[in-house]
Amino acid sequence: MKTAVPAATASPAKIRAANVLSEVFQPPVTVLAMLLLSPAVEPGFPGTTGYGAVAGLFVCILPLIVVLVLVRLGKITDHHVSTRSQRPLVLLMAIVSVLAGIGVLIAINAPRSVLAAMLAVVAGVAIVAVVSAYWKISGHAAAISCAVVVIIAILGPVWLPLLLLILAVGWSRLVLHAHTLGQVVGGGLFGAVVMAGLWLLFVQWLV
Question: Taking the domains of the chain in order of start, what are their residue ranges?
Answer without folding.
Answer: 7-40+53-206
